[in-house]
């Protein structure tokens, strides 16, 4: 670490572009005071004592090489008031516990922007720009030490062009304001357990080809995505929960969109077994363009879709006793073409508050469920429901058998019979008996849906 010990009176240094005024004042070097850097400085700066505040003045530029951070705080705590620019070939800032950063300027680094990995309890406020090749904000643990209690408030831009934008540990809080951006090439925001995330701006993962990544990757926590907030992954899940047994909540009034919308790790070796509660408010969008909007795995998960909330893709609630509440009328096919609302294993309960039993206009059986056609006067709607054990229609609860009994009697196509049909060669057999008329028509429809269901299951089984 090279150290700057300019005197408090600025001195001139010869740079390739001519003589520029450059200095970090000595006043405050011993702690408790403020070091002020101004001009253009081609060197790094180390604060060697606790309680030093370093202020990079507006218009000042610190250019640092690969070996040392542009600004390093050797002792805790330290404060950096960034109004100018840091340009680092390695990390821009390294600091310890209880670090405070207020960045109103520009931080660029080939390495990390802010590297406080292994440390705790930082307060980071960014209203400017942090743009890096490494992690823009690296506040993770190191071998399970540190990484906790950080608070990151962003009203500016935090961008990594080759890595995660923000990587943290457990118990971190991140607020991304309206108009603000957290963008990663890898995950945009990767946090551990008990994260608290509030987004009104854009959190987006744009890479990486061949190794897709998520907008938010976490173990557990609370995510509030306000109206106008966007959580977007170009190549993978918008929100991905890794292994955890701690319950999580997502409250969405904005947009959550990815190849998959919200998903949990389901691999047996590292499965997320926790409760996910998802509330989609009026105007909220949860969309998975690969076909699955929500995949919530084990745990007694909850989904409430308020009237005016939009879900595009299948909803797969996974193991354990799950509950889905769909408020308001359905426009067309719930979830879109081919979407299935699947309770999975366990005694699952679905609520369709805007439809009564006598507003079911048709029931078409499919494997482990049926497609309900509905009309409550707002227009024809349908929803494919699989693996649900009880149904609340306008306040009255019905069993799957009671609803399946509404299916046309000419086609008592039980799951067993359907499997039999499939076993005999499926469509070919049915087509060969088209003279059976109504039976064949209904069976073909049911078979098509069952086949869809199988495709959906295989598509989402990973
Ligand atoms: Ca779950
Ligand atoms: Ca579940
Ligand atoms: Ca279930
Ligand atoms: Ca079930």
Describe this structure in words.
The protein has a domain of about 110 residues. Helix content is about 10%, strand content about 40%. It has a 43-stranded mixed β-sheet that branches. The two termini are about 50 Å apart. The site of one calcium ion has 10 residues, from loops.
Bound compounds, please?
calcium ion
| Portion of residues within helices | under 10%
Largest sheet: 43 strands, mixed
**Nearest-integer average pLDDT:** 87
Query: What gross morphology would you assign?
Result: elongated
Helix and strand composition category: mainly beta
Would you identify the regions where 5 or more consecutive residues have pLDDT less than 50?
Answer: 1-21, 419-462
The first-to-last residue Cα distance is: 49 Å
Question: From the alpha-carbon coordinates, what is the Rg to the nearest angstrom?
Answer: 28 Å
The oligomeric state of the chains shown is single chain
Would you report the number of β strands?
43
Tally the helices: what do you get? 4
Q: Report strand %.
A: 35-45%
Key words describing this protein structure:
binds calcium ion; disordered C terminus; 42% strand; 462 residues; mainly beta; 4 helices; 43-stranded mixed β-sheet; disordered N terminus
């Amino acid at each position: 670490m090279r150290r700057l010990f300019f005197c408090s009176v600025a001195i001139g240094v010869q740079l390739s572009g001519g003589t520029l005024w450059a200095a970090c004042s000595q006043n405050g070097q011993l702690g408790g005071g403020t070091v002020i850097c101004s001009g253009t400085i081609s060197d790094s700066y180390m604060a060697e004592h606790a309680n030093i505040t370093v202020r990079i003045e507006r218009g000042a530029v610190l250019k640092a090489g690969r070996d040392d951070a542009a600004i390093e705080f050797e002792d805790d705590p330290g404060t950096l008031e960034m109004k100018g620019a840091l340009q680092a070939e390695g990390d821009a800032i390294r600091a310890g516990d209880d670090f405070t950063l207020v960045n109103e300027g520009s931080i660029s680094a080939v390495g990390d922007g802010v590297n406080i990995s292994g440390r705790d309890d930082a307060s980071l406020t960014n209203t400017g720009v942090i743009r890096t090749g490494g992690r823009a904000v690296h506040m993770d643990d190191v071998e399970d030490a540190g990484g906790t209690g950080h608070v990151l408030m962003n009203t500016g831009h935090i961008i990594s062009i080759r890595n995660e934008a923000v990587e943290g540990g457990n118990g971190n809080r991140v607020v991304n304001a309206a108009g603000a951006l957290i963008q990663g090439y890898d995950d945009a925001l990767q946090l551990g357990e008990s994260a608290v995330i509030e987004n009104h701006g854009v959190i987006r993962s744009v890479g990486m080809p061949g190794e897709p990544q998520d907008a938010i990757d976490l173990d557990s926590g609370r995510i509030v995505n306000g109206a106008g907030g966007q959580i977007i992954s170009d190549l993978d899940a918008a929100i991905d929960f890794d292994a955890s047994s701690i319950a999580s909540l997502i409250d969405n009034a904005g947009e959550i969109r990815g190849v998959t919308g919200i998903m949990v790790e389901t691999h047996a070796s590292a499965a997320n077994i926790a409760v996910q509660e998802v509330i989609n408010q009026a105007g909220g969008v949860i969309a998975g363009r690969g076909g699955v909007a929500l995949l919530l795995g084990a745990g007694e998960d909850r989904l409430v879709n308020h009237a005016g909330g939009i879900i595009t893709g299948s909803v797969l609630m996974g193991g354990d006793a799950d509950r889905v509440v769909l408020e308001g009328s359905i426009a067309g096919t719930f979830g879109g073409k081919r979407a299935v609302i699947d309770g999975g294993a366990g005694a699952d309960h679905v609520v369709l508050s805007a439809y009564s039993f006598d507003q079911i206009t048709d029931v078409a059986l499919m494997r482990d469920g049926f497609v309900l056609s509905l009309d409550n006067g707002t227009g024809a709607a349908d929803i494919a429901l699989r693996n649900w054990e009880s149904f609340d229609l306008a306040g009255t609860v019905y069993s799957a058998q009671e609803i399946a009994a509404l299916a046309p009697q000419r086609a008592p196509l039980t799951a067993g019979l359907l499997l039999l049909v499939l076993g005999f060669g499926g469509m070919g057999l049915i087509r060969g008996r088209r003279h059976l008329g109504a039976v064949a028509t209904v069976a073909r429809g049911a078979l098509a849906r069952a086949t869809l269901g199988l495709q959906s299951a295989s598509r989402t089984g990973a």
